[in-house]
Write a structure and sequence with these properties.
This protein is α+β, with helices and mostly antiparallel strands and about 150 residues long. Helix content is about 15%, strand content about 45%. The strands form two sheets. The chain has a nine-stranded mixed sheet with strand order 9-8-7-12-11-10-15-14-13.
Amino acid sequence: MQFTPEQLERMRQIGLELDRGGTFWHEGTAVAHPRLRQALLRWLDVRDDGKDIVRLDDKRYAYVTVADAHLRARSARWEGDRCFVLWDDDQEEELAYATLRLGDDNAFYATARGKLRGRIAGAAHHAVAERIVEVPGGFALEAAGQRWPIKPAP
């Protein structure tokens, strides 16, 4: 059976939302199963046109409305002068220093997994903030042998 592009677009609108706290909602009901939530977090992606999706592969994906950030940092740790962030999808990666931004509520934001928005607050925020220094015109993070300016989040 072949679907028209319009039919495929309608089928991709499944009523999935991700709130600021990291709860997925499907048509107003919280996604409560922890393994399904983890799978959805791992499937998060951003299309080339900027639309947020959960992706199984190039053809199978659905749209998701993301209220704030795709991922939230569960923790951050320093290894020498490098900072590693554990995101709530259970993946750890080195902080993308050049993308670090400061939000209105003093949470940090940085790119996660190459193109997702990651929010760094709570204990992870405090760990990252250990290496922040004041510089002319603002603040910077000293990491990986450099000073990385921290800009306001858009």
